[in-house]
Amino acid sequence: MVDGGDPANSAPRTGGRVRSSAARDEVLNATMALLEEQGYGKITMEGVAARSGVAKSTIYRWWKSKALLVMEAQSEAVARRMPEPDTGSVAEDLTIFASELNRVVEFPQRMEALRGMMADAQLYPDFAGALRDWVQTRRAVVSAILSRGVERGELDADLDVEYATDLIFGPFWYRLLVGHAPLRPDLAGAEIARLLAGFRHPAAD
Amino acid sequence: MVDGGDPANSAPRTGGRVRSSAARDEVLNATMALLEEQGYGKITMEGVAARSGVAKSTIYRWWKSKALLVMEAQSEAVARRMPEPDTGSVAEDLTIFASELNRVVEFPQRMEALRGMMADAQLYPDFAGALRDWVQTRRAVVSAILSRGVERGELDADLDVEYATDLIFGPFWYRLLVGHAPLRPDLAGAEIARLLAGFRHPAAD
Amino acid sequence: MVDGGDPANSAPRTGGRVRSSAARDEVLNATMALLEEQGYGKITMEGVAARSGVAKSTIYRWWKSKALLVMEAQSEAVARRMPEPDTGSVAEDLTIFASELNRVVEFPQRMEALRGMMADAQLYPDFAGALRDWVQTRRAVVSAILSRGVERGELDADLDVEYATDLIFGPFWYRLLVGHAPLRPDLAGAEIARLLAGFRHPAAD
Amino acid sequence: MVDGGDPANSAPRTGGRVRSSAARDEVLNATMALLEEQGYGKITMEGVAARSGVAKSTIYRWWKSKALLVMEAQSEAVARRMPEPDTGSVAEDLTIFASELNRVVEFPQRMEALRGMMADAQLYPDFAGALRDWVQTRRAVVSAILSRGVERGELDADLDVEYATDLIFGPFWYRLLVGHAPLRPDLAGAEIARLLAGFRHPAAD
DNA sequence: ACATAACCGAGACGGTACGTCAGGTCTTGAC
DNA sequence: GTCAAGACCTGACGTACCGTCTCGGTTATGT
To answer: Could you report the per-residue pLDDT of C101-145, keeping only the tens digit for each?
Structure first.
């Protein structure tokens, strides 16, 4: 949850009209609808306002930028889709995770959202931190899997877990963003197997 | 070279005033200057026009978008910086390449350019193809190194060269874009060594 | 009053920031100033925006074109200068009116405005109607004078009032636009007298 | 004839390629075609160049502005349509002339041209003189008719011939430009008769 | 016959202004 | 205190034509 997520937290409230949860829902729904229909690049705050029937000033009150708005609109769905497998086998855990990761290809509007959010993180420094925080929560899952593997002796004790985590997410984002090759949930297992071969043996020279 | 790059190619010239190479140079210089001073996100076509003294309409005549303009402004410098090592050793070749790749960290405005171009590729479909083409030229270098390694028997014959190439570039871009960890030219050798351990042996299960 | 003239009319207002009368005044003043200093032909929406300190989009919100803007800027002053004499004598009424009409020659920027508006009416069909409406309000004054003359028996009952009105305004505009002869407020009486001689007697053959 | 009209006059010519009459004709034809199809306001030098297949620079060599171009494109046709009646009767002469004048209503593109030229005369001082000169040639015809009438004693010796001429042309242009009433060739006779009633008798007061 | 000179096409160039879009802020009155 | 409405300033967009300026190439002379 990034901002304005929960209408019943923050300051101690001293009186006055309460935040309209209807307005919040309308905004998030309109955002998802526009994301699906026109893509991230064509979403505008003005468009969301018009579509949702919520005033622009109200939207700005709760979300500082388009990127934060999309992030929240996405977050629940994405959160639900982030498995934290712990089967006792690194290979199995990673395969489950990577398959699920690549399965985003089946939800075009989520791909759109990921690509657009990554774009905005480059263009608006304010948002970069928010995206980084969100990315870290996902990295943590993989790092945990790998650490458990090291502890259990499945993986080389010298393994750089952070870099290994990048080897899981890096190619995913790279393909997602460049589009030179499709994401293949079905091949995740084979790719993980190849990677693990390297993680098991100490690096040569 | 992306567009309007070479004033002396394309159509056979049947008449008409010749393209001003001075104007071209002024525009590219102004673009690089603005990139360095203010960052990709603050570059505007209008700003480039003002800075370069070249009319906006002339800029639009040769470059359809900011992203294509930056890409060309970058391309020569980057091209010069893209080594194509062929030492006879995959490990050595890849280490040279990856070190150089990560060395972009020493040139902040080039990092800015790479990040901005990747962002625009997400937001403007017209540009995505151009970026993809450019990316392919860089992938080709790594693919060639790996293919030579397979031929020479240094690497497993079953190696998926395209995916292996993604394992070189993916983490690079991922770190560049997310910023969760720094790029480390000095560690490139160790990371490559770890990767190659996996490429040498057939995948396990 | 042509458009956006009165900030307190139109829709019943259900909310929203109220129109800034300061902005409106600044725009109209800037328009008149530019008209006087540089002439109608050199007025631009951008120039008015710069001069007035009001945003271009705000100007476009209230006036669709330069011509409508000038028309409104002029209208109050002109309205004040449009007498509706009713002395009981057609000759006297018309002489008063025609003298005043030709007196525009003493206000060069108003001449400029009239000429420019007539020009734009030719070039932009959207504006032609607006100008025609405005012209009709002025014609109505003369038509009324003539009609009263017919009723009183001062003028021939067969007189075509509309055409007679054109005989008042036609030469005025013709001289104003072509510039082959000056406008002469002092000669208006003599010209009217000549005209009336024809209006009193039925047409010959 | 305004400019570049006759390809065989001006400087004594000592050699060099001769002006292409084909190019001249193409330009004039294209101008008339665009005038008819899209109206004066949408004619552009660039459009004429594209339509005619003649280079923009060639057009500018021979015609300094759109207005001069249209004037020449029109001039031959209009010249042919300008009668100089001399029947011995002022009423008859003027009726012939005025009927023909109003007959322009049957040729929409000529109306367009007249309206557009008058507009440009307001906006571009350089052109105002050219239009005025052309207008004078037409006024001269009417003035001559009236002067003959005065000499023959048909009209009052005190008649201001110039103003009387304005009474013929003024209402014509006024209606043409404002569009509040149609031009009526068939009513020209009646209107002239009414006017002449005033011209015959000395002005009253 | 051949140099001279003016013409012509093509099209790039520096400009100016256009009219539009979206951003983000502010003001108002209703709830 | 929040909300819908909507006016406001700001900045940049991408386009259209303007009138000028090279270019390369084409014709008529006139010596």
So the answer is: 999 999 998 999 999 999 999 999 999 999 999 999 999 999 999
* Residues composing chain A: 205
Q: Which of residues 148-187 of B touch strand F (CB under 7 A)?
A: none
Spell out the CATH class of C1-76: mainly alpha
Residue A202 has pLDDT above 80, yes or no: no
Q: pLDDT at residue A102 above 70? A: yes
Highest mean pLDDT among A72-76, A147-151, C1-5, D71-75: A147-151
Give the whole-angstrom CA distance, residue C11 versus residue C18. Answer: 12
Least trusted range by pLDDT, from A162-176, C25-39, C180-194, D69-83: D69-83
Per-residue b or e along B135-161, where b marks 16 or more CB atoms closer than 10 Å to that residue's CB:
beebbebbbebbbbbbeeebbbeebbb
Closest to A72 in 3D by CA, of A17, A28, A35: A28
Q: Which of residues 17-46 of D touch strand E (CB under 7 A)?
A: 17-20, 23-24
Tens digits of residue pLDDT in D136-150: 999 999 999 999 999
Count the Cβ atoms, other than its own, within 10 Å of residue A140. Answer: 12
- Scan for tokens 């009981």, then name that residue: C88
- Contact C198/D196 with Cβ under 8 angstroms? yes
- Angle, CA B114 vertex, CA B111 and CA B115 arms, to 5°: 85
CA distance A52 to A5: 17
Mean pLDDT of chain C: 89
Q: Distance between terminal CA atoms of chain D?
A: 45
With the C-alpha atoms ordered A17, A21, A22, A27, is the resulting torsion angle positive or negative?
positive
C-alpha distance from residue D106 to each of D82, D100, D109, D185 (Å): 15, 10, 9, 10
Question: Under CATH, domain D1-80 is a member of which superfamily?
Answer: Tetracycline Repressor, domain 2 (1.10.357.10)
A83-200: what CATH class?
Answer: mainly alpha
| Alpha-carbon gap: A180 to the closest alpha carbon of chain B (Å) | 7
Q: What pLDDT is attached to residue A126?
A: 87
Nearest to B197 among A128, A171, A197 (CB): A197
List the single best residue of D93, D165, D194, D195 to mutate versus C (max C Cβ within 10 A): D194
A touches which chains (3+ CB pairs under 8 A)? B
CATH topology of domain D82-200: Tetracycline Repressor; domain 2 (1.10.357)
Could you tell me the fold of the domain covering B1-75? Tetracycline Repressor; domain 2 (1.10.357)
Fold of C81-200: Tetracycline Repressor; domain 2 (1.10.357)
Q: Where are the domains of chain D?
A: 1-80, 82-200
Identical fold for domains B1-75 and B81-200, yes or no, is yes
CB spacing of D132 vs C204 below 8 angstroms: no
Nearest by Cα to C27 from C76, C78, C62, C77: C62
Structure tokens at B100: 């150089």
For range B54-80, the mean pLDDT? 90
User: Any idea of the CA torsion for B190, B166, A149, A103, to the nearest 10 degrees?
Assistant: 160
Angle at C101 between CA C129 and CA C96, to 5 degrees: 130
How far apart CA B77 and CA A37 sit, in angstroms, is 39
